[in-house]
DNA sequence: AAGCGGCTCAACCGCTTTAGT
DNA sequence: AACTAAAGCGGTTGAGCCGCT
């Protein structure tokens, strides 16, 4: 990324930084920008989302005065501008969680991200592809050499798994749960904003409905994980 | 000090899914 | 039922960084 462009690593900006002049004409807005986001663009995007709430991304470019497509705006918000995003190195428990969830869910990065507060799907995906995948695969190789792997052929490959991203990791998941990750409802995100509370862990993914018939985990936020891992243990026994 | 190669991560692309009409 | 627009996702790319030689 460009060093001259806004990298945002310092993270902080205020509304005072918003420039007065905005590109508001159709001609200006028609020229879509690509590439790295500038500090000013981040400020405009943040101001827009704070004002109107998340959602209706197709309106964000015109509302914010940004020469970006709705996809770019959404992605930038979710991966960078959003205040709840956690940056820095992955902690040990986060890594452990990623490995387990990835083994269980496959490359459903958004679902995995939904279980790890503050982390984005892009972050996790990048982390996996650049580090964890190799690490897990290499440990898997060791397991195979030790004769620990007894993977069943019919369980080895999911259509959803990429060819090189460490499929069948850690002995390979027995099967990949493929819940419906979609949350197409237009209102919840806005209502969350109105309520003055954003929760990164629930904004864009739903609990796996198809396989998740268990009651809501009101008291213990990690109850779902315990259930998940218990089920994983059952699988291992078969 | 310079060159090189690998790594990181922000961003883009293409596709699928869903909602609305 | 068919079509369209919008949202969301995973895969991929590429610029910049960093460490090694």
UniProtKB/TrEMBL annotation:
<keyword id="KW-0805">Transcription regulation</keyword>
<keyword id="KW-0238">DNA-binding</keyword>
<feature type="region of interest" description="Disordered">
    <location>
        <begin position="149"/>
        <end position="182"/>
    </location>
</feature>
<dbReference type="Pfam" id="PF00249">
    <property type="entry name" value="Myb_DNA-binding"/>
</dbReference>
<keyword id="KW-0539">Nucleus</keyword>
<keyword id="KW-0677">Repeat</keyword>
<feature type="domain" description="HTH myb-type">
    <location>
        <begin position="29"/>
        <end position="85"/>
    </location>
</feature>
<protein>
    <submittedName>
        <fullName>Transcription factor MYB113</fullName>
    </submittedName>
</protein>
<dbReference type="InterPro" id="IPR015495">
    <property type="entry name" value="Myb_TF_plants"/>
</dbReference>
<dbReference type="InterPro" id="IPR009057">
    <property type="entry name" value="Homeodomain-like_sf"/>
</dbReference>
<keyword id="KW-0804">Transcription</keyword>
<dbReference type="InterPro" id="IPR017930">
    <property type="entry name" value="Myb_dom"/>
</dbReference>
<dbReference type="GO" id="GO:0003677">
    <property type="term" value="F:DNA binding"/>
</dbReference>
<keyword id="KW-0010">Activator</keyword>
<feature type="domain" description="Myb-like">
    <location>
        <begin position="29"/>
        <end position="81"/>
    </location>
</feature>
<dbReference type="GO" id="GO:0005634">
    <property type="term" value="C:nucleus"/>
</dbReference>
<dbReference type="InterPro" id="IPR001005">
    <property type="entry name" value="SANT/Myb"/>
</dbReference>
<feature type="domain" description="Myb-like">
    <location>
        <begin position="82"/>
        <end position="132"/>
    </location>
</feature>
<feature type="domain" description="HTH myb-type">
    <location>
        <begin position="86"/>
        <end position="136"/>
    </location>
</feature>
């Amino acid at each position: 990324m460009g060093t001259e462009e806004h990298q945002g690593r310092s993270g902080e900006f205020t509304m005072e930084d918003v420039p007065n002049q905005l590109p508001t004409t159709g001609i200006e807005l028609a020229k879509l920008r690509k590439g790295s986001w500038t500090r000013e663009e981040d400020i405009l995007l943040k101001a827009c989302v704070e004002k109107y709430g998340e959602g209706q991304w197709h309106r964000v470019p015109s509302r914010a005065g940004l020469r970006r497509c709705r996809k770019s705006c959404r992605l930038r918000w979710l991966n960078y501008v959003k205040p709840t995003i956690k940056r820095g190195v992955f902690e040990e428990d986060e890594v452990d969680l990623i490995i387990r969830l990835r083994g269980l869910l496959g490359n459903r990065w958004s679902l995995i991200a939904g279980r790890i507060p503050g982390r984005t799907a892009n972050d996790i995906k990048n982390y996996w592809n650049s580090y964890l995948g190799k690490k897990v695969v290499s440990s898997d190789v060791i397991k195979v050499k030790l004769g620990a792997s007894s993977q069943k052929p019919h369980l080895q490959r999911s259509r959803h798994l990429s060819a090189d991203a460490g499929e069948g990791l850690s002995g390979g998941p027995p099967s990949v749960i493929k819940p419906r990750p979609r949350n197409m409802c237009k209102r919840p995100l806005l209502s969350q904003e109105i309520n003055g509370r954003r929760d990164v862990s629930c904004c864009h993914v739903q609990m796996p409905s198809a396989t998740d018939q268990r009651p809501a985990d009101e008291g213990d936020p990690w109850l779902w994980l315990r259930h998940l891992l218990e089920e994983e243990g059952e699988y291992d026994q078969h």
